[in-house]
Description:
The chain has helices at 10-37, 40-47, 51-57, 61-66, 75-82, 89-103, 110-119, 121-142, 147-152, 170-190, 199-217. By secondary structure, it is mostly helical. The protein has two domains: 10-66, Homeodomain-like (Arc Repressor Mutant, subunit A), CATH 1.10.10.60; 75-217, no CATH class. Helix 6 (89-103) crosses helix 8 (121-142). It is globular and about 60 Å long.
Amino acid sequence: xxxxDYAPSLRERRKERTWNAIHQAAATxxxxxxxxxxxxxxxxxxxxxxxxxxxxxxxxxxxxxxGFREPTVxxxxxxxDSKRQNTYIFERITHLMLDMVLETIPEGKYSDYRKLAxxxxxxxxxxxxxxxxxxxxxxxxxxxxxxxxxxxxxxxGAFTFLPEGxxxxxxxxxxxxxxxxxxxxxxxxxxxxxxxxxxxQRQKLISEAVKTFQYLLRDE
Length: 220
């Protein structure tokens, strides 16, 4: 099987440059002028784009400052998950949730976002809505998995996916939503308020946190 080429097209690279220019301009003005002093016309002037272009990328100056990406289950996330195929399923889902959130945050901005959320209620609210959006995207992804086959193989190994057009039961949607809520609860319990540990330490902490939840949820 030939390798899949994930290299972005010229159009995608141009969109990425424009996105970065707007976000960097908004973040720079936020640092120098504060939230109230940051104006959309100044952002567009610094970024070298029109206001129409601005609103093609961001709904508001607050969104441009934060620069959250649209959440998705990316090829990179699935590649990381492939190395966890013998891991307890809720650990895998928790990692997928965290990986998705981190992929939507510009590199190196995690601590900055925590600070903004503490200082400005508008950023705190937007961050909460963004996390909820990530949860919905992950929930939709879980609904594409053939859980009957996956469970039959001991809930380990590669995910198998349902054929297109399969009608899902209400029970499947409830289970997917519950799985994501548990993953979100694990991450909230871990409380990375001081910043993210490195990947190896993060894996250890997630494993320990999930085991704590397992203990609390087990049948007596």
